[in-house]
Amino acid sequence: MRIDSIEILKLALPMIHSFETSFGRLEQKDTVIVKVTTDDGIVGYGESPAFHAPLYNPETADTCMLMLEKFLAPAVIGKNFDTPEEFQSGYCFVVGNNMAKTGLECAFWHAYAQQQQKSLKELFGGIRESIPVGESIGIKTSIDETLDEIAQRLSEGYVRIKVKIKPGWDIELTEKIRSRFPDIPLMLDGNSAYTLEKHLDTLKTLDRFDLMMFEQPLAEDDIIDHATLQKELATPICLDESIKSVEDARKAIQLGACKIINIKPGRVGGMIESMNIHDLAQRNAIGVWCGGLLESGIGRAFNIAIASKENYTYPADMSPYQFFYKEDLIEPSFMVKSDGHIDVPTEQGLGYQIKEDRIKKYTVARTHLRA
Ligand code: OSB
Ligand code: MG
């Protein structure tokens, strides 16, 4: 397939509810949609799920736009590629910028799936018909509000609850959750807000609440302190921000810094690297799960497909669009069933219809490269 055209679109998706984590409150979701067109007229879409500001990782929607326009898209435009691996090798000289790379790689996967007349699930080697889903609950204004949301989601079928914490919004919160819901699969996500030096006692107290896992308590660039912490805790540590590549995963596993890995394709640079991490983790008996970055349905479609692989043994963060947005960029969007599972599409291509008119409606900046 020759890549004849690449459109790079920055979208601003209004959020109906803000989402607060230890790094700040998200009130609006910027995202970047990449659209490739091949010489055969096949059109593929991908998503770079960056935010408006570099809070979760160093990228933003604007850096994705710039990197895609100046380096990534020019490296592949007008050229022929037979496989996603070949396509990726076209721009692998670019260091970092994993979210920018993910949008481009996914757009190629989407086009490739259509050319091969296969589903993403089949291309990724998925084995599950449906995937289990948990909810990720942001920092609220009161503990009661958090408890009510947990009760609501459990009644809707979500199979585990993840709660965002930060220093000062942790022990009392977890205590109250556990006293009202003693047996639910519960996990906490610190989003890098804690340090060994200041918070070891807090972390050891949280260790008593029979948690499924503790996601990224310490700094995003620190796997050494996570290894020290894991020796102090019975709760399995799950790394999110710290794992940006299969090499990071290898080192974290070797050091004993985690027992579980949250794989977000956007954070690690795409589906190929996600699969590399999945395979490495599986060889080392480390379970993985698919995290989210509040993607639109376009990004989520890739996440759902990859989460059907064998070693995705924990529930995904895959809240449906209704939690955050008025409408999705795919229609119909995926649905979380009353058993807390999402069906994995088996149709050729993405498995969902793209709503071009909605992409247009939310586009605030656009670049078009032609061969
Ligand atoms: O740390 O998992 C995270 C959302 C934005 C930034 C970071 C994180 C999250 C989530 C994802 O918890 C929730 C979702 O995409 O449904
Ligand atoms: Mg996280």
Describe the structure.
This protein has helices at 61-76, 84-89, 98-116, 120-124, 143-156, 171-180, 196-206, 224-232, 246-255, 265-268, 271-283, 297-306, 356-362, and strands spanning 3-21, 24-38, 43-48, 130-137, 161-164, 186-189, 213-215, 237-239, 260-263, 287-290, 316-317, 341-343, 363-370. The strands form two sheets. Strands 4, 5, 6, 7, 8, 9, 10, 11 and 12 form a nine-stranded mixed beta sheet that branches. A four-stranded antiparallel beta sheet has the order 3-2-1-13. The chain is globular, with a radius of gyration of 20 Å. The mean pLDDT is 98. Strand 2 and strand 3 (43-48) form a beta hairpin. It contains 13 helices and 13 strands. The chain has 371 residues and is α/β, with parallel strands linked by helices. Helix 1 (61-76) packs across helix 3 and helix 9 packs parallel to helix 11 (271-283). Magnesium ion binds next to loops.
Shape: globular
Number of helices: 13
In whole angstroms, the N-to-C terminal distance is: 13 Å
Q: Please state the CA-atom Rg, rounded to the nearest Å.
A: 20 Å
Write the H/E string, N to C: EEEHHHHEHEHEHEHEHEHHEHEEHE
Bound molecules: 2-succinylbenzoate, magnesium ion
State mean pLDDT (0 to 100 scale): 98
Low-confidence blocks of residues: none
Q: State the total count of DSSP E strands.
A: 13
The major beta sheet can be summarized as: 9 strands, mixed
Estimate what percentage of residues fall within beta strands: 15-25%
